[in-house]
Structure formats: C-alpha cells, structure tokens
Amino acid sequence: MPRTATPRLFFPYLVLCCLVLVATTGCTSGRLNAARENYYMGKPDASIENLQDVSRQDPNQVLQLMERGMAYQTLGRHKDATDDWIAAHGLANNLDYYSVSKGATSLMVNDRVLTYAGAPYERTLLHAFAAESYMAMGLWDDAAVEARNMVDRLESLEGFPDDAYSRYIAGFCFEMIRDFNGSAIEYRAASALTGALQIDPETGAMNMTASNSPPLTQRNLAGPELVCFIGIGRGPTEYGMWVQKTAWGPSPYAKLYAGNMYLGRSYIFTTTQKLMVDTQKKIAVLQAAKTVTRVAMKEVVAHQVSEKNMFLGELVRLLLFSMETTDTRRWETLPLWLQIARVPCPPDLKEFRIVFYGQNDAVVKEVTVTQPLTRRGNTFVSSVRAL
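Given the sequence above, the corresponding structure tokens read:
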C-alpha cells in the first residue's frame, strides 16, 4: 500500500508556501502604498493607475478595490466608484466562507497571508460611500439598496462598534424613497450614538443640545434644504499613524454658504480613529487564542526540523517567529472625520461655498461646489472631501 504523507514531509512544504505568500504580499503592499501616497498628494488619477490590475489571487484585492473606488469618487467618476465598491462587497462576502488552506497557512505565519476582507466598520462604510455615489448620480433606489446593506451589517455587529454616520446615511436614503418608518428608526439610532448632537427622527434635522438654536420642532419642513456628506483629513495608516495637517486641530468643521448667505454648519458624527480603536479592542480578544495556537505550531515545526538538522531547525524557527506580526491592513483613504450638514438653502441652488475651519477656528480651506449636486423634491444632496 502507498504510504500517506507524514507530518515531517508536510511541514517543510508548508513553510515554503508561507515564505512565498509573504513575498507576494510585500509586492502588493508596495503598489497600495504608492496609490495612497498619490491620492494624498492630490493625484487620484495616478492612484487609479497604480491599482489598474487587480488580481483575484492577490491577498489585498478587496483593499485595492476600496482604495481605487475612493480615488474614482474623488474625481467624480461615481459609476466607476460604485462598480469597484460593489465588486469589493461581493469578494468580501465570498471571503466570509473560511478558506481551509489559507487558514492553515495563517496559523503558521500570520493573518496577513489571508485575503483581506475589511474590518466590520470598513465593510459598512463601503456601503455608505457607495450610497453617496448613487445619490450623486440621482439613483435613489440603488442608494436605498446600499442603505439596507448598511442596516443588515449594523444589526449584526456581534460586539463591533456601531457607526452614527452610516446610520444617518441609511436613514437619509430611506427618507429619499419615502420610507419614513425606516428613516425614523435609523435617525433615532444615529442620535443615540452622537451624544450632544440631537437628531429629529421625523425630519433628520440636527442640532447641538447645548446651542441657542431653536428647537428642532420649529424647523420649517416645507422649505428647501441641502444635505452634504463631508469627509475631512486622513484616516489611520497601516501602522496606526495619523498623518494630518496640524491646521485641522482636534475638531474641524465646515460652514456652508449660498453666495454670501450663511446656511449652517457641519457636525462630526464619528471618526475612523474611534471606529478602528474600538474594533481593535474586540479583535484583540478574538485573536488571543489563535496567537497561542500559532506560536505552539511554530515550535513543533522548528523542533521536527531540528531533529534532522539542528542548524536548519534554528533557521526555520528564526524565519517563522520573525513573521509573527499582527495584521494591521486597513482602508487608508478613508477620511478621519465623518461629518454631515443639513441646512436650509435657496430653492434655485446651483452651487454652494464650503469653508473648512480647523485649529483655533482658523480657515484651512475653501471650496465652491457645483458637482455633485442632485435634487430630490425640495432636498439638494452633495458630498465633499477635504484632504
């Protein structure tokens, strides 16, 4: 009878596979880093070029689609952006079905050899930004589909952080298709997460409870309004760093104008820093047991190789433990501050001016927005990114 493969033959083969996977991952990271650098240098077209060829065998394929979609959205290429994000969503869902072969390899090396499917908050924001792009194209039903995807994710968090920004966008998408029951549920959920920021579940109007503004119930619901989704700054990098303009300070915000008429200001709903930190706390608990198992397996492999060749065994031990690192990959072109403004506006709004304020209320940037600017009834919708 033929003899089955023994562990002594299997482990060296597995080690070789590990090294090949690590080398491949390193090459991919170089392209991703170049794309991110170009994006934050104000060259989203170059960022797209960096990520033109997305391989299905690439462990960073979902990340590449996330990053490229953001560059497309920044350029106003909303159809391309949604195509990438829908593809990323489909791939990530497929990856939720555990791969046995790569799972075994991750136990030998680290989780970076697994194909990245996105942190839970990134998967939710994938739908939020896709919804923004659909609204920019006036595709309200498609935006509502993304809203339902957001709600599905947010209703099954299993201990991962909730997200007021995505909750509000989901509510707004429902409002735009006249699903007022659905919008009220999401506005109420967003309000519960935003602390001092009060959100009216019936209208989506927002106000700081400590401000001198009139109560939300006195708002003129019949008048036209502008809803603007605003991203400011740069989210955390793979290494947990926040490379921000010092001028932004800790709590930037924006004021909106139609000509010289002041319309109102934006409010922070959440930050990707907070979502990341809260996610890491949850992951740390889940990872503890897996790390212990991985370290034990590496010792077994090194010991078995040492029985044949002590020098080679020590070399294998050195290689395996040098690769014992945490998977810190993340969607790096996300904004740091996720904000929303909902303000009254003229009925014939064709453009608006947005002024960004940072440290000590100093003006950091000013932009005139003409696109995207879509309309649904009396509601104008736009989105802006300030780097």
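The CA atoms of residues 72 and 251 lie 27 Å apart. Try to locate this feature in the token string yourself.
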